[in-house]
Design goal:
The complex is a heterodimer of chains A (about 90) and B (about 350). Chain A has about 90 residues and is of the alpha+beta class. Chain A has one domain. Chain A is about 25% helix and about 35% strand. Chain A has 2 helices and 5 strands. In chain A, strand 1 and strand 2 form a beta hairpin. Chain B is an alpha/beta fold and about 350 residues long. A 5-stranded mixed sheet of chain B has the order 2-1-3-5-4, covered by helices on one side. In chain B, strands 6-7 form a two-stranded antiparallel sheet. In chain B, helix 1 crosses helix 2 and helix 6 crosses helix 8. The longest helix of chain B is centred in the N-terminal third of the chain and has 26 residues. The N terminus of chain B is likely disordered. Classes of the chains: A alpha+beta (about 90), B alpha/beta (about 350). At the A-B interface, strand 1 and strand 3 of A face strand 4, helix 5 and helix 7 of B.
């Protein structure tokens, strides 16, 4: 199953994306998304970046500070793999 | 005749004599007496008037504001050590001890922070970001290879850049001034961060960022290149933005393509008011008011901060600047403030109008 992280925003608005394969059950996906989903109101940080995660047909804005310990390595890899979307 | 005047009526004349002269049948003498009476009235009342007037009123009236003795720069620099835990960042430098540091990024933000604080304090008497002496906190080496800098509502945060397209976001003073100005805007009009108001919010940050850099480098409007982030973006022909020619910060960049900023209102880019839509293109359409400022400042000549800067600061701190202001609202306010500061038909008013006309607002 593919998991895709997209980063938008910034001092100059560029979009970056990274994708990798994961082996997660539907329950694990739901639990992960529920944990890291941004609140209903997204704070508009001046020049800030925003992340969106796509997995299992769902795309949601996420707060990477909420990533649980067991997924930190996965998200660290996704972040380091982010490439500019031309 | 007074030693310093070419006009005899501008001498110290007793009030009873001045009253007589004001009623003189000779129109020239009467006019001069009225003028002198007005000056005398002002001389006696200016001090009490200005003691009561706000900083904003003083700025409008063009009073040479001297920095208050109580205004002292307070700044701290923290090293995030490439992590995203701000609470765990290590204090690297503070203005109280002013210790020597070896970190390049640290030195950059100290230099930029001081230049920004000096700019606002020495020119406008502003006491830090909130005008109440707020401690300026800057965080460097945030995250791994983050190609960004931002103001999170309380502090300035800088990434090191990805090393491919971008270097450290501390490399340019204009970026540091840009982020600090987001704080100033937040404490003044608090412009919405979406659509035209958001683009205006971004533009104020670019405008004050570029003036802070030009002042630090002692560059006048002709000598300056009006590029934002020219060191941050790798490659001699690239910059993050151009205020002189929006849309030309970078061209045919192998990774980024072309700079998307428009210079004129007829090229305004309509984007969705979402995070992926840059909240309606706030970093894109800021090119329009940026261009208006550039033309205005250039046509005024000299140093950008001396005339155009005074006008734009008066607008930035004007309580009439609505949170959802559009470009046309800011245009009206800049013209109005230029008239108050420099006179109704002054060359400065003409230059401001030329700026907005060039941007087709």
């Amino acid at each position: 199953m593919k998991i895709k992280l997209v980063r938008t925003g910034g001092f100059i608005p560029i979009t970056k994306a990274a994708e990798t394969d994961v082996n997660l059950t539907d329950q694990e996906i739901t639990r992960l998304l529920n944990t890291i989903e941004s609140g209903p109101v997204i704070q508009r940080i001046k020049d800030g970046n925003y992340y969106e995660l796509t997995i299992g047909g769902r795309s949601i804005p996420v707060d990477l500070e909420k990533v649980p310990e067991e997924y930190k390595k996965l998200f660290s890899k996704l972040k380091s793999d982010l490439k500019i979307v031309k | 005749m007074c030693k310093n005047h070419h006009n005899p009526v501008h001498c110290i004349i007793p009030p009873y004599m001045l009253s007589k002269l004001m009623e003189s049948g000779n129109k020239k003498i009467a006019d001069l007496a009225i003028n002198s009476n007005f000056r005398s009235f002002r001389f006696h009342n200016d001090r009490s008037f200005f003691q009561k007037s706000s900083l904003h009123e003083k700025t409008i009236l063009g009073v040479n504001i001297k920095a208050s003795g109580k205004s002292i720069l307070q700044m701290e620099v923290y090293d995030c050590k490439q992590k995203t835990d701000l609470a765990g960042a290590v204090l690297l430098w503070d203005s109280k001890t002013n210790q020597k540091i070896s970190s390049v990024a640290g030195k950059n933000v100290i230099k930029g922070g001081k230049a920004s604080w000096d700019f606002y304090n020495q020119l406008f008497g502003r006491n830090s970001i909130d005008n109440k002496g707020l401690l300026i906190r800057q965080y460097i080496h945030y995250d791994k290879g983050l190609d960004n800098a931002y103001w999170d509502g309380r502090r300035m945060i800088y990434g090191d850049g990805d090393g491919l397209v971008f270097t450290s976001f501390t490399s340019d003073i204009d970026i540091i001034g840009h982020e600090l100005t987001h704080g100033v805007t937040e404490h003044e009009s608090n412009l919405d961060y979406e659509d035209q108001a958001g683009a205006m919010n971004e533009s104020f940050s670019d405008i004050f960022g570029i003036m802070i850099k030009q002042r630090y480098n002692n560059q006048d409007v002709k000598k300056a290149n009006w590029l934002i982030g020219e060191k941050v973006m790798k490659g001699a022909n690239y910059a993050l933005r151009s205020m002189k020619a929006p849309g030309t910060g970078y061209k045919n960049h192998p990774e980024l393509g072309d700079d998307p900023q428009p210079a004129t209102m007829d090229k305004y880019v309509k984007l969705p008011n979402t995070q992926s839509g840059d909240w309606g293109g706030v970093h894109i359409n800021s090119g329009i008011p940026n261009f208006a400022f550039y033309i205005s400042a250039f046509n005024m000549g000299g140093y950008s901060w001396e005339k155009a800067g005074r006008i734009w600061y008066a607008v930035l701190t004007d309580s009439n600047l609505a949170q959802d202001a559009k470009f046309a609202d800011v245009k009206k306010l800049t013209i109005s403030h230029a008239e108050k500061i420099f006179g109704l038909n002054s060359p400065e008013v003409k230059a401001v109008k030329q700026g907005w006309d060039a941007a087709k607002v």
